[in-house]
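Forum: Protein Structure Q&A
Topic: Joint prediction for protein chains with partners

I've read a bunch of threads here and the consensus seems to be that you should model interacting components together rather than docking separate models afterwards. I'd like to see that in practice. Below is the full input, 565 residues plus whatever partners are listed. Could one of the regulars post the assembled result?
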Amino acid sequence: MRAPPPAALALLLALAALAPLRAQAQREPPPAPPPPAGPALAAELAQPRIAVDTAFSGADLLVFGATERLLGPAGDNVVVLGIGPGRDVVVRRRVRRLGIWVNGPSAHFRDVPNYYALAATAPVAGLLEEPARRERRLGLDMLTARIPGPRDPEFRNALIELKRGTEQWNEEEAPVEVSGGRLFHARLPLPSTIAPGDYVVQVLLVRANRIIARQELPFRVDRVGATARIANVSRDQPLLYGLACIALAALAGWLGSVIFRRG
Amino acid sequence: MPVYLPIAEMSVDALLLLGIGLGVGWLSGLFGVGGGFLLTPLLILIGIPAPVAVASGANQTLGASVSGLIAQWRRGNVDPRMGLVLLVAGLAGSAAGTQLFVLLRRLGQVDLAVSLFYVVVLGTVGALMVRESVRAILRRRHALPARTHQHSWLHGLPFKMRFRKSRLYISVIPPMLVGFGIGILSAIMGVGGGFMLVPAMIYLLGMPTGTTIGTSLFQVTFVSANVTLLQALQTGSVDIVLTLLLLVGGVAGAQFGAAMGTRLRGEETRALLGLLVLSVAARLLWDLLQTPGSLYFLGPAT
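Posted by a regular:
Agreed with the consensus. Here's the joint model:
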């Protein structure tokens, strides 16, 4: 019998709680509604919007929630996956020609997420079978296997290494922390190079090698304040922006020569 | 003190940028070069994306050279007539160079072409400058008679023009060719071209070193303004926050550099600039030859 003592205890407690309700129902004619079944999983983001201002130097996104049943090695497990908007990228390899390193073969990958973070209460490879992990893109190897592009594993591995190097992709660097058996929280690191756009965090509840509940929590990365204004003017009015850059730079140069004039 | 750059979309230490600006600005004022050939590789080294580094480098060069230009103008070291001739030819050359750049990109290997251009041009210019200036220094030490003015076939060309500040009466064709050629190179290499212009004015046109620095700054100011505008329109990769941080250090540095430059002899300035240019060429050659840390690299899809 692999049933864990805490889960069995919880079941007993639940039955005990139901017992008086049933007794009451027998005494009074209108049948009481069954107790509302709590959701198996409830998760939330601490901030649904990440504001990128001039002082932004990366952030941690706090994902927290609770489960109906106890979390633990023998009970349920929670997997948290953060994923960002896709963009086409090219991975190139350098080759040596006549003693000089030049650009060699390249691989074009379509719709590569610019952000990927995975955390779980236990190693994901032990929680779910490969087909399920592949379908949900759980793990960088599963993610890259699903990205359209050349099948050459060499370039796919290089893509993983390069993205990890810029801290835009990470997997299972810190586990999802559990407190009190049912409360969990995870911190997904957002690097300072994170691009503005629409992101999504998926929280999965895994029981006995199966995903039994899933919640999608969208969040946005937005530029705010001066950062947003500069980026918008640069995009919407490039001529004005270019002239302003010239004027500001020339003004700074002129100011410098006035301030340091005495010599 | 981290600061987020809105166009580069990343956070960088502001003090690091101030320091880089100060160093490059000092060299800029001392040698009359924009410093783009130093600044752009430095920015890429600290992780700024290459297009932003090139575009913002040009914008910073503009500010630093305005500062240097005013300082040189006060000292009477600018030949505006020569500057205008070089500028007109330079703008035409950079338009032609942009077309060549597009052609190189179509053939692939544009990175390699740019690196090789850097190594060959910087190496040649640096070696020539060091050789000539060391000879000049030795000649002065041994009090040998200096050959100040040589008459060559250049002086037989038509359309002669008087460049009073440079004490020259030469045909307008050689400065036009110099400006055009450097315009092409600067478009391909993404730099203002001051480090090529100064030696070209000294050795090809026979201008005195003092005037070349001010005149070069005159040309670099307008070329970098042109590049800034084109980059803002075409690639949208000019980061004004990055530019202004670099400039705060840069304008201070340029003033100190310009003041120090007047205390150095012409041939000493040339020798130091030559050594600097040579060392950048050596560094870039080393990057081409050594086995890279990562054989793979990532780029946006074109």
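The two ends of chain B are 35 Å apart (CA to CA).
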